Amino acid sequence: MISLRQLNKSYQVGGRALHVLRNLDLDIKAGELVSIMGSSGSGKSTLLNILGILDAYDSGTYHLGDTLIRHMDERQAAKYRNELIGFVFQSFHLLPFKSAVENVALPLYYRGVPRKARQALAMDLLDRVGLAEWSSHLPSELSGGQKQRVAIARALIGKPRVVLADEPTGALDSTTSEEIMLLLEEVHSHGMTVVIVTHEADIAARTQRTILLHDGVVVS
Ligand code: ADP
Ligand code: MG
Q1: CA gap 8, 191 in Å, rounded
Q2: Are 99 and 137 in contact (CB under 8 A)?
Q3: Is residue 109 within 6 Å of ligand 1 at its C-beta?
Q4: Of the bound ligands, which one is closest to the alpha carbon of residue 40?
Q5: Whose CA is nearest to atom 24 of ligand 1?
Q6: What is the reported pLDDT for 45?
Q7: Nearest by Cα to 159 from 201, 198, 113, 200
Q8: Which of 184, 190, 193, 181 is nearest to 52 (CA)?
Q9: In terms of Cα–Cα distance, which of 108, 142, 143, 150 is closest to 125?
Q10: pTM, entire model
Q11: What pLDDT is stored for residue 203 in this prediction?
């Protein structure tokens, strides 16, 4: 499902190249629940952003299913992102002046789905994450765990090929983290491919496989 070959990524920092991902080879199968670990600065977010088509890479190849993700302009990247990827961020990234249901429905707005249909689907998703009665609330009226549930519902509404989560429990207390992990496990149990970046060993232990990054190289 996900296949990286000899992937390289550098940033330009103060006129010098910072080589973050080095000749990375990586395969993730459809339906896997995988974690990515590694110390701070090891390139976890860089890798996830490339997988999520939020950032470009310098050389090598990235196949998502049959699609080569390479050399896209922003418009094409946005289209692929919308169709193929569900992304969950540590800091939720909800629109502050949109209600929970409007936030969940947003990916369908960009696809041109009519308002009634996207509202109905968004309500189904909110119900699935246990927030049906919070649909008209703004993010500021929700707890951190509820905000992350809304973000997961938004990630799922477009029926993506893969859900990518960058430290999804990083801003949450341990009880709430547990609820979010249960939800991601439930999503996986329905056949979704789920990739979770984390620095918490107990989160990683609940996944089927851990990919360990060290200085931009997969070490195990
Ligand atoms: P992690 O998520 O594992 O903590 P990151 O992928 O965020 O690591 O960062 C890897 C390295 O790349 C770090 O040294 C970081 O400072 C650097 N880096 C990340 N994003 C950028 C950027 N947009 N521009 C320049 N350097 C960056
Ligand atoms: Mg990071």
Answers
A1: 30
A2: yes
A3: no
A4: 1
A5: 11
A6: 96
A7: 113
A8: 193
A9: 150
A10: 0.96
A11: 94
Q: For the residues of 135-161, what is the DSSP string, one character each?
A: TT--GGGS-HHHHHHHHHHHHHTT--S
Is the CB of residue 88 below 6 angstroms from any atom belonging to ligand 1?
no
- Long-range contacts at 112-118 (CB < 8 A, ≥ 24 apart): 118/157
pLDDT at 201: 93
Sheet-wide strand order for 85-89: 85-89, 162-166, 193-197, 33-37, 209-214, 217-218
In three-state secondary structure terms, 79 is helix
In this predicted structure, what is the pLDDT of residue 218?
85
113's CB contacts (< 8 A; 6+ apart) are: 121
Q: What tokens were used for 158?
A: 């477009």
Decide: residue 97, CB within 10 A, 0-12 exposed, 13-18 middle, 19+ buried: exposed
Return phi, psi of residue 42, to 5°.
-80, -5
Chunked mean pLDDT (size 10), the chain, 220 residues = 97 93 96 96 96 96 94 92 96 97 96 96 96 98 97 97 96 94 96 96 95 86
Q: Is the CB of 44 under 6 A from ligand 1?
A: yes
What pLDDT does residue 182 have?
Answer: 96
Q: Which residues surround ligand 2, an ion (CB under 5 A)?
A: 44-45
Place of tokens 């190289």: 217
